[in-house]
Write the structure tokens for this entry.
Amino acid sequence: MGDLLPMSVLMAKAYKEGYAIPAFCSWNAESTEMVLKTAAKLKAPVIVMSGPGEFPLVRPDVLAAITRHLIKKYPVPAALHLDHGDSLELVDECLAAGYTSAMLDYSTKPWDENVNALREVVKHCRPKGVTVEGEIGHVGKADTMSVESDRESTLTQPEEAVAYVEATGVDVLAISIGNAHGHYTRLPRFDFDRLAAIRKAVSVPLVLHGGSGTPAEDLRRAISLGMAKVNVATDLVTTVRNALMKQWQGAKQQWVPTTMAVATAALEEVIERWLRATGAVGKA
Ligand code: 13P
């Protein structure tokens, strides 16, 4: 510990032991510190992730340097993951920065394009011991909150999941079973038969995108059926936004670092809730 680990190492243990690791969207030093600090407090493995939605604010090299510094201060098993990478160039930028896991999301592209691109990502990442996440089927969005995807979901077929893992060599697989990014405007209906069939057919750990708003019982069942990582973004971003709005509405003046400190502190409860809900607490 004290250094970042490949995401597949964390997920292999979780998959075997029947819990999941939350991957928290992080966009600055403060949010990263709150994730690692809370995970350390609860002795939980954790994944810190960022992607094209966060990089307009801060580039991967800066986020990686921050995370590498903080992991020494809060030594838990942790990975730094590129979420929804949209080009091979961005994957390479994250590799150079020291990310220990990368997703290239070509799930809306034709089969050949998705497979060929992910094969290439595997070629770049494997020699460096960096984990690769691919997506087959497509996880769309539940509302307009999230920056991920602007397409309808397409459910993952078990046969295509098998063929995709075989053809690309990805280490972990994101699938679509009724989950969606953003705030659920009505309760999601996960297709657990589909999930069970995919788990039976492929040997790699599975990833649940669109964690925010998932009912507790559905989450537990999805984890018991092989979802070893749960992505969480909207819950965090909404918490910070609400905390800022509350302070700023009607206020004549507010010192930005002070309001940011209050907003970041509000993240602790959300992070803790997710670490407990996924069963990650005490697994470090
Ligand atoms: P939510 O924003 O719904 O939590 O989903 C996050 C996600 O899947 C990022 O990849």
